[in-house]
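Limitations
The C-alpha cells in this dataset are predictions for the assembled complex, not deposited experimental models. Users should treat interface geometry with appropriate caution, especially where small molecules or nucleic acid strands are included. An illustrative entry is reproduced here so readers can see what is and is not provided.
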Amino acid sequence: MNIDERRFIFQDLRSVEGYIDPPDALVFKALLQAQTRDGLEGGMAEIGVYYGRSYFLLRKFAQVQEKVLGVDLFEMDPPEDGSLDQYDRLMENGRRLGFAMDRDLIIKGDSTRLAAADITSKIGPVRFFSIDGGHHLHHVLADAKLAMEAIAPHGVIVFDDTFNPAWPEVTVGVADFLRTHGHSLACFAMTKYKTYVCHREFHAVYAGAIADEPDLQALGHVETQFLGSAVVRLHNPMRRRVMYELMVRSGLGGFSERIYRSKVKQVRDSVAGT
Ligand SMILES: C[S@@+](CC[C@H](N)C(=O)[O-])C[C@H]1O[C@@H](n2cnc3c(N)ncnc32)[C@H](O)[C@@H]1O
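Predicted assembly:
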C-alpha cells in the first residue's frame, strides 16, 4: 500500500462520520485493486451512504472512466439549528476530500423502490455493490435482488452488519438470499461486520485476491463453510481493535495503521528504518 492510500484509509476516512473500520476498508481496497489489475471493470454502487465513509472508499479506488453511485433516504439526523443536513454533509465531505460530486449519481430515495435499470442506466453493470441501507428483512431482500440484477458477471456484493446481533434480520435476509440463489452466487469472505459474495465462477478469483493480499496478512485467515461455499473469515483480534481505538482516541491516529501491518512487513520496515 502506498503512502497516499494509507493516509486515505487511516486518516481521511476517519474524518467522515460513519461505520467502515480498517479491516473492511483493507478488504474493499484489495478486491477493488484486484479487479482493476485483472481488467474487471464496471461501476460501483452503495445503498446507505450516510455521510460517505465507505462511499468515498469506492471513489478512491474507482478508475477515471468508472462511475460510483450512492443511494440513501437522506433523512438521518435532520438538523434543527440550520446546519448542513445529511445530503449536504455528504456533498461537503466529498469536496473536502477532493472528489467531484455529481448530483446525478446520488439518488435520494428508498432503495427498495429502485429497479436495476435505474442504476445501470447511470453507471453500467456494477463491479462492486455495497449494501448498507435499511436493516430489516424486506430491505435486505429487496436490496440483494437489486444488486444481483445490477452487477456485472464479475461483480461483488457486500452485505453490512451480517451476524450482528443488533440486526438479526440482516443475517436472515442474507441467508435466505444465498439459499435461494446459491446455484449462481457464493460467499467467499466474511469479516466481523461484512459478508462478501460473487458469482460462483469468480469465487476462486476473489478468494485468491484475499489470500494473496499483503495488506491483509496481519488479519487471521480462518477457513470455514457457509451455505455450500468455502469462505475465509478474516479475524481481527480484540487486542488489536482495542489498541486501535486507544491510539485514535489519544490523538495517535496517524500511527494506527502500523498495527495493521503484518509481522513480516513490520520486521522489513524496522530493518529499513521506516
Ligand atoms: C449505517 S448507515 C450507512 C453507513 C455508511 N455506509 C458508512 O460507511 O458510514 C445506513 C444508511 O442507510 C440509509 N437507509 C436506510 N434505509 C434506507 C432505504 N430504504 N433506502 C435508502 N437508504 C436507506 C440511512 O439513511 C443511513 O444513511
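Some entries come with short summary sentences. For this one: DSSP finds ten helices and nine strands in the chain.
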